[in-house]
Amino acid sequence: MTQLNDPAVDSNSAVEPQTDIQAAAPAADTTRDNIHTLRWQSYLKDCREIINLVEPLEVAGRIVKVTGLVMVATGIKMPIGGACFIPLQDGGRVEAEVVGFDGENLLLMPQTAVDGVVPGAKVFSMEVTDTLPKPQFGRPPRRRAQDRARHFPVGDGLLGRVVDAAGVPLDGLGPIATDVTAPLNGRVINPLMRAPIEETMDVGVRAINAMLTVGRGQRLGLFAGSGVGKSVLLGMMARYTTADVIVVGLIGERGREVQEFIEQILGPEGLARSVVVAAPADVSALMRLQGASYATTIAERFRQQGKNVLLIMDSLTRYAMAQREIALAIGEPPATKGYPPSVFAKLPALVERTGNGARGEGSITAFYTVLTEGDDQQDPIADSARAILDGHIVLNRSLAEAGHYPAIDIEQSISRAMHNITSKEHQQSARLLKQLYSRYLRNQDLIAVGAYQPGSDPMLDVAISKHDQINQFLQQDIHECAAMQDSLQQLSQVVS
After folding, report:
1. Maximum Cα–Cα distance for the chain, whole Å?
2. Which reaction does it catalyse (predicted)?
3. What mean pLDDT, rounded, does the chain reach?
């Protein structure tokens, strides 16, 4: 009776069972939640496996017309400059680029021959997601259409290699050992941010070093007809220049000359620090355009690394002809001697990518060969190139026929940056030699027939006495290297 009436005993017996029930309830809820979570995880895993088995939806157009160099595709939307491919029935494919559109139809320019393309063949856009950067803090996204286009290998892994316009090795030395890629069209440099031309560049050719001094970041044109010796002169500059890297673009030349230029003219010494991009005449016009842009892109990458680059492009005329083929094929009207207006817009866009970079970066000193049809210096491409370049070196056929190599016509040639990077003594010596050379040529016929009387013209008397010495100074053997300092010393001796 006492225990039943004791309040302490009653309270304890009542509280203890209630506490056990409250402790067991959360444990049961947790177990139910874990089972529920496991069920959902298992269900989602099954869903992911099913999704992985599903083939992605393919967005494709189809070929409705092929006329000459142009293919017409419909049913797909792509930007100008976009890359696509057409699968062939034999397992291969034809890569192409969008060069225009007509209503809902795309105008495609193939990179290779269109053999095997059938009516209604599918057209797929080429994936570029693997070239997009990973999300990182402080790294701007690629907003430009050029940045989202196809990327090609660049960097130190290309040194000593020969590649085509798509970055595929042609030398049989295996794949390119580089992970760095870049689009064909680089960013435009603010003209106010460019470093000025303040230093000279030694190209190893005495006539150019002394009479047409080249500055780092200068862009010059090599104007010549066929068979005058421009390739040999380019090879001499490539072997003997003081530039850190040499990039050679062989655009539209004969395929036989590619190997000759590499083995005989460039040589192992020049190739070791060079990158050669070959797009010979037998490839499509699109690949010739792409080869010139790719060579410039490679040079831009080395310039960003702070290196001084020598870019040699042979030739700028073939680049213009390739653009003419494409423009006429898509219906652009011809303007000057069969060249459409887009040709004259493409030339400065390509040339202006070279030159000096921003302060702290490297430089691209560029030599562009310009073919003059019939040695006509008023050819529209030659005239346009002369206006946008920083100087021009003219090779004279009569000098080449007389055995005068390199056949540089110092009367018609000029370096627009020479007066900013050379001393007054150097400029005076070069000007005096050019005056003596020109005075002799103007009176050459009188001298040959004996009609000139010595003493009539004091400067002509000096020109006659120094004519052989001047010719010897301007000539140079292909295996001879003339450094800048030696060239200036010989110039002073000739005009003294």
Report:
1. 161
2. ATP + H2O + cellular proteinSide 1 = ADP + phosphate + cellular proteinSide 2
3. 86
Fold entry, domain 150-420: Rossmann fold (3.40.50)
> Please, where in the chain does CATH 1.20.1270.330 lie?
428-495
The H or E element that residue 101 is part of is strand 93-102
**Closest alpha carbon to 179 in 277, 301, 294:** 301
Domain with CATH 3.40.50.12240 in the chain: 150-420
Instruction: Tell me the CATH class for 37-142.
Output: mainly beta
- Cα separation, 319 vs 368, in Å, equals 11
Please say if the pLDDT value at position 56 is more than 90.
Answer: no
pTM value surpassing 0.85: no
Question: What distance in Å separates the CA atoms of residue 415 and residue 323, rounded to the nearest whole number?
Answer: 28
Cβ atoms of 209 and 487 within 8 Å: the answer is: yes
Q: How far apart are CA 68 and CA 122, in angstroms?
A: 19
Q: What is the DSSP letter of 390?
A: S
pLDDT-based confidence at residue 148 (cuts at 50, 70, 90): low
CATH class for the region spanning 428-495: mainly alpha
Cβ-based neighbour number of residue 281 at 10 Å: 15
